[in-house]
Amino acid sequence: MRFPWLTLAVVVVVVLAAAAGWWLLRDAGRREGRRGWVANSGYVRDLPKYRALVRRTRWALAGTVVAVAGLAAAVAVSAGAPVDRHMEDRRLSSRDIVLCLDASGSMIPYDGQIVTSFRTIVDHFSGERISLQLWSARTMVMFPLTDDYEMADQSLQDVGALMTDGFRGKSDSGVYVSSELLDFLEGTQDPEGQLASLAGDGLAGCVLGFDHTDQERSRMVILATDNEVLGPQIYTLTQAVTFARQQGVVVTALYPGDTTYLSSEGQELRDQVRLTGGEFHDAAEPSAVQGIIAEIEAQQRVDLDGSATTVETDRPGRALAWLGVALVALLALGGWARL
């Protein structure tokens, strides 16, 4: 309420007016000498029509009291000028997160579930900017850093559905995918088929996805890969991690393989991401998502220039609606009871 005292004043006036009216009217007829008797009229009380009129009058009076009370309450609330208040902080949340997904053949059996995990992580965001990049031999930016969560979730949903429905099985020679998924991933593939899963280049591309490098911001890459590199890279994983550290980027990994008996590639990935302050998670474990969320929440927030302000928005609609309902009810009762 913008003027709560005015609401209280209306309530007090209505209560005093009701009390005064009751006091003046309760014995008005007797005080003014207007009370009289009519002979041989006792049987009238037993007539069905009389009883029906009495019942209707009582119901009408009760309804009128309720309608008037509702009318008074609506007027009181309207007089107080109801508003919504919320804090608007111009210091936007300064955490940037890049979702960095390996779309090579060895990862396709796991990518659908990993994208589902990405969606769960994004559901916990509030103000952070997020980006999604897919890579294998080349990087494909699905969407740059944004806080448009509706668009981001729809994009993740579409990618997840393509990955899940497009995977048709695997054998010792490779994986089988649908033509739709093959066309979708064309931008990440080497036309000659000699390069795949270039983890160093993929991570470096995701680090380059951060903007505002002149500002102090919290930056994280969630890297989903098995680190099974095929072919020469511009950046090795070690070089890409060094680049990330220079840019102040934390890299945390989602690994799809067996974390109990890690391969040499898995060990390298684990050791390198920990150098950035990130963690190494088993993508198959349900706790991995909560672990990443906890990491993000633990990262320091860096506020941009600005100040928080209280924003008030008038919301008279509900009170005015009840005012209209009470008026219509009062008129309807008057017409029904012929008052």
Topology:
Blueprint: H1 4-25, H2 28-31, H3 48-79, E1 83-89, E2 95-102, H4 108-123, E3 129-135, E4 139-146, H5 149-166, E5 167-171, E6 174-177, H6 179-184, H7 199-207, E7 218-224, H8 237-246, E8 249-255, H9 264-275, E9 280-282, H10 287-298, E10 308-314, H11 317-337
Parallel strand pairs: 2-3, 2-7, 7-8, 8-9
Antiparallel strand pairs: 1-10, 3-4, 5-6
Q: Can you put this structure into words, describing what you see?
A:
This protein is α/β, with parallel strands linked by helices and 339 residues long. The protein has two domains: 4-26 and 48-85 and 313-337; 95-298, Rossmann fold, CATH 3.40.50. It has eleven helices and ten strands. The protein has helices at 4-25, 28-31, 48-79, 108-123, 149-166, 179-184, 199-207, 237-246, 264-275, 287-298, 317-337; strands at residues 83-89, 95-102, 129-135, 139-146, 167-171, 174-177, 218-224, 249-255, 280-282, 308-314. A six-stranded mixed β-sheet has the order 4-3-2-7-8-9, with helices on both faces. Strands 1-10 form a two-stranded antiparallel sheet. A two-stranded antiparallel ribbon has the order 5-6. Helix 4 (108-123) links the parallel strand 2 and strand 3 (129-135). Helix 1 runs antiparallel to helix 3 (48-79), helix 4 packs across helix 10 and helix 7 (199-207) runs parallel beside helix 8 (237-246). The two termini are 36 Å apart. The model is unreliable at 300-307 (pLDDT under 50).
